[in-house]
Write a structure and sequence with these properties.
With 362 residues, the chain is α+β, with helices and mostly antiparallel strands. The protein folds into two domains: 130 residues, Beta Barrel (Lipocalin), CATH 2.40.128; 196 residues, no CATH class. It is 21% helix and 34% strand. β4 and β5 form a beta hairpin. The longest helix is centred in the middle third of the chain and has 14 residues. The two termini are 48 Å apart. The N terminus is likely disordered.
Length: 362
């Protein structure tokens, strides 16, 4: 797993091993380079490398219209490349910097011609790591995209995304909104040399890059606070590879509200997770933990799980506090326990009492 700048546990990226390398062939050496041409009627750019340090050959291509790299895996038959489970390429040996072949879908329903011309000066290099192949991809991947305006009631916001991470920009006249937007923007991946290098290394060694996906949307927005719910899917991790959380800001001051500090403990996030922060976690004080476990009315294995775990998610609102108990690896035991402002008072420190009073005042 690669960590931030762009990584599986940053916005992030995932490495999947490619298999099926074959012995070096005349086609392998002859096809090395960056090629432009068509697949069917669609303009594409492709790259093929000779055997690299990892003992593999590598290939990749992208549609000029979409600018998303697609891995090509070499097969044991000369000139054969697999496009995942979806299609196969069959290429002839290059003739004077021209390369032809066929793209065939795995279900046999499509058979399209491939016609390519090698770009000058790219035959004696690691083509899949070159500027010629990667610069258009990087420009597209690291471009900030601002979506259309959406509504939560009468409140307005719009999605802002880059490299698989989608946060939000709030649109409101409250004095703290600009500060909140700056904080959220700062958690988006940026465009710098290190991030481009990681993107390029993935294309060079794997033929593609796959991002973690992060999404965010406001779920409660008043004249005092806004709560944003966030969700992360870890690339390649399947159904269990997800993280959920919520974060709350004071829309007057622009400061983030951390309810963990209301109970005299600090919050944190897993050290190996990247920005953006999806949710904060902490350790519940023993008396509060006992109260919540009793309120959960859980039995059997789930009760044992609550007893063993002292971490929980917290979401605050103008009507009270919700605690999320359990473990994401045991979704059947996940349970939300709501505690009213009055019932939570014995567990709060002075800071917590003041901030909750301000949030919930009528």
């Amino acid at each position: 797993m690669i960590k931030q700048v762009l990584s599986l546990r940053a916005p992030i990226l995932f490495l999947s091993a490619l298999h099926g390398a074959s012995l070096a062939t005349p086609l392998e050496a002859g096809a090395q380079g960056v090629w432009s041409g068509t697949l069917g009627n669609s303009p594409i750019v492709a790259c093929f490398d000779a055997r690299s340090d990892d003992g593999q050959r590598h290939g990749s291509y992208y549609y000029v219209r979409y600018l998303a790299p697609i891995a090509l895996t070499p097969q044991t038959v000369e000139g054969e490349w697999a496009e995942g489970a979806d299609a196969r390429w069959s290429l002839s040996s290059p003739q004077r910097n021209h390369l032809e072949g066929a793209w065939r879908s795995s279900d046999g329903r499509k058979d399209l011609p491939v016609r390519l011309t090698r770009l000058p000066g790219t035959s004696a290099m690691q083509a899949c790591g070159s500027d010629a192949y990667n610069l258009p991809l990087e420009q597209a991947a690291l471009k900030v995209k601002v979506g259309s305006v959406r509504y939560l009631g009468k409140k307005r916001y719009r999605p802002v995304s880059i490299a698989g991470v989608q946060l939000v920009e709030l649109i409101d006249a409250a004095p703290g909104i600009a500060a909140i937007n700056r904080q959220l923007r700062a958690e988006l991946p940026g465009d710098d040399a290190a991030q481009r290098q990681q993107l390029r290394e993935l294309v060079r060694t794997e033929g593609r890059y796959v991002f973690d996906t992060v999404t965010a949307e406001p779920v409660e927005w008043t004249d005092r606070s806004v709560t944003i719910r966030l969700h992360r899917d870890f690339a390649g991790a399947g159904a269990s590879g997800a993280e959920d959380g919520s974060r709350t800001w004071n829309v007057v001051s622009g400061g983030e509200i951390d309810p963990w500090r209301w109970f005299g403990v600090g919050s944190d996030r897993s050290a190996d997770l990247p920005l953006p922060v999806v949710g904060r976690t902490g350790v519940l004080p023993a008396n509060l933990k006992d109260y919540l476990v009793k309120a959960a009315h859980a039995g059997g294995d789930c009760r044992a799980l609550y007893d063993e775990s002292s971490a929980a998610g917290i979401q605050v609102s103008e009507v009270g506090i919700e605690f999320l108990l359990g473990d994401t690896l045991r979704p059947e035991c996940m349970q939300t326990v709501f505690v009213s402002p009055e019932a939570i008072q014995p567990f709060l420190n002075e800071r917590g009492k003041a901030e909750l009073r301000w949030l919930t005042k009528k």
